[in-house]
Design goal:
The protein is α/β, with parallel strands linked by helices. The chain is built from 6 helices and 7 strands, in the order αβαβαβαβαβββα.
């Protein structure tokens, strides 16, 4: 019986360490896709991705190496960036939470997502080594980083503290 309790504790502790579930080294290469010479993310209109942010969107915007400086570093408000990869299961679990936060913050905070596999330059610059990683930017500088799968209310608390 004691061995079963110990085994259950070990399993429980292993489940609590979800942030390392998608641990990997970032690949900081600047590869250009021959079929996509502009560097725009497929499925996103180039004109909408490159517009300056006058009023913050209430949905998550798609970021890339090409538009990161303009949409994040030169933004006039707090920006939350979700670094993710399509193969990362915790990233897929985090995505709806980020989308809900974007709607709840009503444009006061900009929320973006950046595919680390397709955008190695930015993920390498900020040394993203585990996924999911959420970085909060204020005045073009990262002020907080969350690695792993966090509850929505905890992410909101971090946003609130960064906005002060």
């Amino acid at each position: 019986m004691l061995y079963r309790v110990i085994a259950l504790l070990i399993v429980a502790v292993g489940l609590l360490s979800i942030p390392s579930a998608c641990h990997r080294e970032s690949v900081a290469t600047e590869s250009k896709d021959a079929s996509n010479p502009t560097g725009h993310v497929a499925g996103v209109a180039a004109e909408s991705a490159e517009k300056p942010l006058s009023k913050g969107p209430t949905e998550v915007i798609t970021l890339s190496d090409a538009n990161f400086d303009k949409l994040v570093l030169k933004a006039d408000r707090l920006v939350v960036v979700d670094f993710y990869a399509d193969w990362c299961k915790p990233c897929k679990a985090l995505a709806p939470r980020i989308a809900e936060l974007a709607k709840e913050n009503k444009g006061d905070v900009v929320f973006g997502k950046l595919d680390t596999d397709a955008n190695g330059k930015v993920s390498g610059k900020y040394t993203v080594r585990a996924l999911p990683t959420v970085m909060i930017f204020k005045n073009g500088k990262p002020v907080d980083t969350l690695v792993g799968l966090w509850p929505k209310d905890y992410i909101q608390k971090k946003i609130d503290s960064a906005s002060r």
